[in-house]
Each structure stands twice: as C-alpha cells, then as structure tokens.
From TrEMBL, chain A:
UniProt xrefs under InterPro entries: DUF112_TM (IPR002823)
Pfam families associated with the record: TctA (PF01970)
Keywords (A to Z) from UniProt: Membrane, Transmembrane, Transmembrane helix
Protein name per UniProt: Tripartite tricarboxylate transporter permease
Occurrences of domain DUF112 (ranges): 18-436
Transmembrane domains' residue ranges: 20-47, 59-80, 106-130, 142-159, 257-279, 317-340, 352-379, 386-402, 468-488
Lineage, broadest ranks: Bacteria, Pseudomonadati, Pseudomonadota, Alphaproteobacteria, Hyphomicrobiales
UniProt KW Plastid keyword: no
Keyword Membrane (UniProt): yes
Amino acid sequence: MIDQFILGLSVVLQPEVLMYAFFGVFLGQVIGVLPGVGAITAISLLLPVTFYLDPTSSVILLAGIYYGSQYGGAIASILLNLPGTPSSVVTCLEGYPLARDGRAGFALLVTALSSFVGSMIGVAVVVMAAIPMATFALKFGAPEYTMLVAIGLVAASLISSGSHLRAFSMALVGIALGMVGSDASTGQYRFVATDALADGISLVSLAMGLFGLSEIIRNAASHEPRKTQIKLTLRDIFPNRAELRSMVKPVGRGATIGAFFGALPGTGAAIASFMAYAFERRISRTPEKFGKGHLPGLCAPEASNNSAAQTSFIPTLTLGVPGDAVMALIIGALILNGIVPGPRLIIDEPELFWGVIASFFVGNIILLVINIPLIGVWVRLLSIPYYRLYPAIVLLICVGVYSHRSSITDVVLTLVFGIVGYVMRRYRFEPAPLLLGFVLGPMLEENFRRTMLLYGGDFSVFVTRPISATLVFCGAALLAFTIGSAIVSHRKALKDKNTQGGPYSV
Amino acid sequence: MNTLEGEKPGGDRNVWRQAISGTVLVGFGLAILMISWNYSAGSLTQMGPGFMPRVIAVALVAMGLGILVSDLRGTAQSYDEPIHWRALIFVSAAVLIFVTLVEPAGLVPAMFCAVAASKLANSRAGLLSIVIYSAAVTLAGYFLFIVALGLPLTVFGR
C-alpha cells in the first residue's frame, strides 16, 4: 500500500499535474462559497476542458473542485448563514452563532482544521480500505438502506434544539416535499401542480430559501451596524489548548461517520454531516449548548463531510457506482477519456487510481495553506454593515438558484420557501430536519418499496439479515434513548415552569 | 441583529396563535392525503405511487394533532417579535422582479432592478445611494457570473 501511495505521489508531484490539483481545489473553494453555484455547475462547465487533458489530470482537477467546495461551503454558512453546499447546512447551526459573537475568524479556522483532519482520515481510509470497503458496501441491499435511512430520520429529530415532535413533523414535511415530481418506480407524476415541477423541487431552492432568504427577511430592516469587533490576532482565532482538546474526539468521530457514509453508494457528504451532528448532540453531556456555537457541533460535521467527500470515491472508482451527481460526472469524464471505472481500474490503471488518491492528500494540504491567510479577508466581509450587504446576498441567491437549472420556477420556489422558513421559525419549527427529510425521503421510499417487493411484504427481513438487524438494534436504542430523555426533560420543564418562564428555547 | 432575545413568556393570551402550528400541519397532511387519493396505492408487495404519500400524510396528521394538544396545554411559549413587513414585501418584490426580467430583459437589467428593490427593504436607503449601490453590485455580479464563471446566461435581452 505504501509503495502504491508513493507511486501515486510521484504522479501528482509532476509540476503540470500539481498545477491542475491546485487549480481544482482553488476553484472548488471559491465555487463552494457562492451559494447555489455548486460543484456540479463547476464540474459540468469544466467537463469539455477535460477532453484536452490526460485522464489522470482531468479526474484530479474535477475531484479537486468537489472536495474544495466542501471547504468553501462552510465559509458562507459561518459568515452569512447561507449554506454554500447542502453538506454545510449543519455548519450554519453552530458556525453562524459564533460569527455573531464576533468569533468568525475562530470558527473559520476551527472549520479549516477539522476539515483538514477529516479529509486526511478519509484519505487514509481510502488508501487502506478501498477494496475491502467496496466489497462491504456491496452487501448493502434494499433492507439495509431502508433501515439506514430510517435511522437518519430518527436522527433528524435529534438535530433540533427544540421539541422532538416538531422536528419530526418537519422531517415528514421534508419527505412529502421530496415526493414532488415523477415517482421513481412507476414514473407517474405526483403533486405536480405545474409542468415546471415535473423534475421535482430543487434542493438548492429549498436550502437557499429556508436558510438564506428567511434570514435576510429577518435582518434586512435592522439599522445598527454589526457589532462585530474584528479579532484577527493569532491568539484570538487560534483555539486554545482546552478547545483543541475538546475538538479531538468530535473530529475523530465525525471523520469515522463520514468515512462510512461516503463509502456507501447513494449516501453522500450531506447525509454524513447531518449524522455526525446528530450523533455529537446525542452523546454530548451538555446538549443544551448546541445551536449556540458549540465547538463539537461545529467540527464534527465539518470533519464528517470532508471525510465523506474523500471516501465517496471508493464506490465511484472501485465499483463504478456513482454516489451522487458529482461522482456521476466524474465517471462521465473517465468514460469520455476511454477508461471504464470498475473493479479492474486499480489493476489496469494503477497510476491513475493511486495518482488521484495521492492528489487528495496533496490537495488538502494546499487547501489548508490557502485557507488560513484567507480567513482575514473573509472576516472583513462581516465588518460591512448588514444593510449594505444583504441586497448583494439576495442577488447571489437569485442568480445562483436560477443558473442551477435555468428555471424561473426554482427562483419563485426559493422565495416561497424563504417566506415559509421565516414564518416557520416564528412558530418554533426548525428548517434543518425538513431538509434532511427532503434528502432522505426518496431513498426511504425507493428502498422500502424494493424491500417489500423482493421479500414479499415480509417485515422480518429487516431482522433476519445481519447488517440490517444491527441497524434495527441501533435505531431502536436511539429511539428508546430519545423518548426516555424527552420524558426526563419534559418533567424537568414542568418543574421549571412552576418556578420561572417556560421550558422551550426557540 | 437577531431579535430572538426579545421573546416574552406566556403565549396564553391567544388560543388561536397557540393552535395554529398544529392546525396548519394537520391541514397540510390532509391536503396530501386528498391529492394522493388519486394515485393508486397498490399492495404492500406492489406499492403504487400513492402508498408512501398516504403513509406520510397520516403520520403528519398524527404529528399535527400531537403538537396541537401539547401547544394548547401551554407548555410552550411563542415569541412576539413583530413581523418585518417592509423587509418581507421588498425582498419578495426583488425576487419576483428578478424572475420577471431575467428571461425577457437579460441578466444585467434583472440584477440592477432586483438589487434596487431589495435595497428598499431597509428604510435607510436614499434614491441616489440606491442607484450607485445597485450599479456597483450589478457590475460586480456581471464580472463574477459572466466573465469569471462563464455561466450560460443572457446578459441583455432581445
């Protein structure tokens, strides 16, 4: 393995290839900051360019855009509460409160460090376990996916900082929204009010509306300049020793969760980051600190989505099965160059395979190095008063959403979701579980239907297959634990109510 | 910035305000149920397109009722931050103006008008500053989206 990795390094460290790696991660980072303009846009725009490159350089370039955008996505989340990429939605939950406290530089640095460590763990997993993990992932059939997604939805209710009931109902609303469009099995249109909805609601409009526009509506009228003092000395932005120590375990756990979800075909960085956040919250001894800029809640999902971004290349390169749309484009680029990804890729094209993996290693170092000096630039953005900044953000959202599919309806829907999100928050409903339900819903339906079809409507299949049974057990434990803690907190709340205000924070 | 701190305890003044979250959810669930009644449900082994929507709709109605009950029992509080009507109206107008202009008139006029409209969401803006600001943002947007990113959008309409 070490020999092969060194072979890969020798490929990447050629000046020309290194240049493409740098160009890829830099572009990815910039694209990731822009809300709505995602890695997919950038990769599809660059796809024709790869005709003129050799296959290794083209994959290195496109892959760099992908994991670079994971870094960039966090930046807009922290500074503006705009998730630049779907996987940075949970970064908003902890990063934005930190920025409002004037600790944006700190949050950005913590994110960069967590992302870097997460990516490195992901790369290590790819180097050591690509082949065994690919075969393990093949064992995941429809029942396993159904259970995995069901656990994800239970976890969705744990993301919330308010009532679990409200959070779970939001996840259901998300699933319902995910059903708009043509039914995956029969092709029948469901809930298609106008023709423009035939392709379903776009994730970009949903996320931009719920998180971006609703925040703008809430803050646009404010007059006061931002109270952010810019603290940019190294001492202010570097985490101190105690904070560093409190980051180690969440980053490790996040990266592990991310590595797992990344390696499964069909689940990507977005789900991985949600899961890592929910897990951190669940095991935390101080869950009430979440949502207010709690460090583990910031670094675990960041480590997770970056780790997943790396390991999602395992199914792509070793099985030829793309995990998401970006991976499908990368496979497309390989096929355009006359290379068919699949189990024989490692044997037939070792230089390509290991070159690409070594480029992850080099690319992440480049990302960390270009990120730290940029923190100062990003934080200065915050010293601009909000009333001067928000029209430009409105514009970013409009153009970003519109350019995604050239669809007017998408932009109108973004506005609808923005208003819905604004009203929802007034009634203590949180947008994050809704988004998770939207992402997981179609997978749940498809795999549940397939399971029932394959096993003749027999529910026992969920507990007779070993992997699925393990997942059922985990899910049941999670549910029991949640209900238990909900009862405890309810009792405590009732007690509190007699003494002071009320139990729920908004 | 964020005025969540302005929340006050005791939403018990108005029963309607407490009942609205649950009611809206129940209504949403019922609407889904009604629409999905047109799709065939199939059987458990051969699920049709209507099966899962009905399951989700029923679950949603149940959740809505649960929330209704717990809200009416008054263990929760709502916050009385006033609705920012001005921001709501002008931000919405900005997005709608963008939508109506971007295809017939092109990206640049759409950007300019949308930025100008959204600037009105804040009462501080004067006419001259709106024009200068919108022009600057439009120029920046042109360089970002058209020159740097090369997005395939019409710059000026026919």
